[in-house]
Design goal:
single chain, pyruvate, carboxy-lyase activity, phospholipid metabolism, 202 residues, zymogen, three-stranded antiparallel beta sheet, alpha+beta, Glucose Permease (Domain IIA)
């Protein structure tokens, strides 16, 4: 099973501690082993296959935000601790900039999470935001300015619970949306919007 970067850093301490703890206190050893197993599961990084057309979800989870911002539409996805936390490119394009914005660490499902620490990735075709939650304080982008990505490519991950947004181009409106708040989505596989003039594999 492929794992996201950082898995060893978080998983090894409880897994190593499980051995001596099992001798001293079997329940504590089992707890440490379970914790290490949870961390490994959390950092899993499965392969994904994008559909032929459409803007794909940047994250696993449920749609928590659908709103208009001027002439653009934002779709936010809340990731539970049980979801895969590797983020993927909603569309093919070139990375124009990465902007780190310090902020609070409110629960990622709350309205106040818009003020949380985040990394905004501006592509030439859309924008994607990686937003930290109350417990997740480690945002790890995989891309740099100038990188070219295909739709569904890995672009980063956030450790332990968070939110990811895609800000659609101004040519999209609510009529182009394929999801609503509360819908489950999968990163790189679920199409969240489709424009009538959009070519395949874009």
């Amino acid at each position: 099973m492929k794992l996201a970067p950082g898995a060893r850093r978080y998983a090894l301490p409880p897994l190593v501690a499980a051995v001596p703890l099992a001798v001293v206190s079997p329940p504590l050893g089992a707890l440490a082993l379970a914790l290490g197993g949870f961390v490994v599961h959390f950092f899993r990084d499965p392969e994904r296959s994008p559909p032929p057309r459409g803007v794909v979800s940047p994250a696993d989870g449920r749609v928590s935000v659908v709103r208009e911002e001027g002439d653009r539409v934002r779709i936010g996805v809340f990731m539970n601790v049980t979801d895969v936390h590797v983020l993927r490119a909603p569309r093919a394009g070139a990375v124009q900039s990465l902007t780190h914005r310090p902020g609070a660490h409110r629960p990622a499902f709350s309205k106040d999470s818009d003020r949380n620490e985040r990394v905004d990735v501006a592509f030439d075709t859309c924008e994607c935001s990686m937003i930290a939650g109350w417990f997740a304080r480690r945002i790890h982008p995989y891309v740099s300015t100038g990188d070219e990505v295909a739709r569904g490519d890995r672009i980063g991950h956030i450790a332990f619970g968070s939110r990811a947004d895609v800000l659609l181009p101004s040519t999209y409106d609510r009529a182009d949306l394929l999801v609503a708040e509360g819908d489950p989505v999968r990163a790189g596989e679920t199409a969240v919007a489709l424009h009538a003039d959009e070519p395949s594999n874009n």
